[in-house]
Amino acid sequence: MPTWRPTVFVERIPQLAEIVIRRRADIIDRGTDWIRRLSTDLQGKRPRAETRELVARNYEGFYAMIVDADTQTRDDFIEFVTAYRSSMEFKISTLLRGFMTFKVGFEAVLPEEVDDPVAARELRDMVDEAYFDSCFLVSDVYASKLKARLHQTEAELMRREKQAALGRLVAGVAHEINTPIGVAVTGASFVRDRVAEVEQSFRQGGLRKSTIQKFFGDVREAANLSLTNLDRAAGLVRSFKQVAVDQSSEQRRSVDLGKYVGEVLASLQPLYRRTALTVRLESTAKIMVSVMPGAVSQVVTNLVSNAITHGFESGQEGEIVVQVSKESGEFATLTCRDNGRGIAPEARDKIFEPFFTTRRGSGGSGLGLHIVHNIVTDLLAGEVQVESEPACGCTVRIRIPIEA
Ligand SMILES: Nc1ncnc2c1ncn2[C@@H]1O[C@H](COP(=O)(O)OP(=O)(O)OP(=O)(O)O)[C@@H](O)[C@H]1O
Ligand SMILES: [Mg+2]
Questions:
Q1: Does the beta carbon of 277 sit less than 6 angstroms from any atom of ligand 1?
Q2: Mean pLDDT of 261-279
Q3: I need a labelling partner for 385 at 20 to 30 A (CA). Which of 42, 81, 251, 397 fits?
């Protein structure tokens, strides 16, 4: 469909068409020579016939546009070269130079065709206009293709990063579980060996009271060791199951956030009842949020138990304040603040990583805040931030949309 006409010297189109048709081979040849001389890279290296073919397609595009007022052929050519180019590293100038082959070829034959300087200038202006018009178009098309590719690459990178993170997590779990299971196995095989020994003495009739007594002590100790370690392994598995927050396990419903958090804090009393810590809820207005209540409970439990275990020495006095408030009409904030020892600067960047803990060996698995992060960002569609200075306590701030 005709959509384009040079805005200048339309009356010269027949003259231009006549020259361009008659001198087709020359225009293409001269354009080809020019670009091969200029480009030491791609065009310079490929066989001349191949370059000439591209220059010929370019010629068809310009011919159709200027003479037939049909931009489709030119646009098809732009599609063709940008598709072809966007698959490799290259400069946009290379493309624009390709478009120039028609202009260069035409200008080379022009003095042989037209003597009148005014006519020559007008013909050249028409070709120039077509050339610049095409340059802008090809730049736009190429830029948008590049952008699309960038988005694609970005999505692919994110997918890979997620996969790598999962791989690290699985490796971490295997590593963490290995130790307690190993200890439990050692304990159980110790029991088996001791039983065999004592059984043999019993059969031979040489079983002494002192042997039996020692046997009881040994077995009790080994069984306790195995149980403690199996317990620890089971705890790790439980935590690990929570890492993959299960979206389908609970229904979203509307809850009064302050009231609900108050109930959770009450249920956590056994954790702090016999300490010198006070745990307090600050909640002024009633805020109804649409959430999975279990997710909120898990978050609050992790934050409060972190404050209790990591923030304070045993017997130390302190305060833990959980605050629920509304931020504009769209967001609710849930803040857990303690006035304990805080987090060291070198640990601050790592606390959300799975298995980062400063209490390895005394019950910490390092999954708590990782789970909190997953729940807040995935299930609650919110954000979580931690502010902490050593000796100035720790504040975890969570922001969730009210109607998620
Ligand atoms: N309120 C806090 N005060 C001081 N340090 C904290 C606080 N909360 C978290 N931390 C630090 O962040 C680390 C990571 O916390 P996270 O809850 O992920 O693991 P954890 O509590 O050690 O183990 P888990 O929660 O799996 O039992 C803790 O080991 C601790 O060093
Ligand atoms: Mg924790």
A1: no
A2: 91
A3: 251
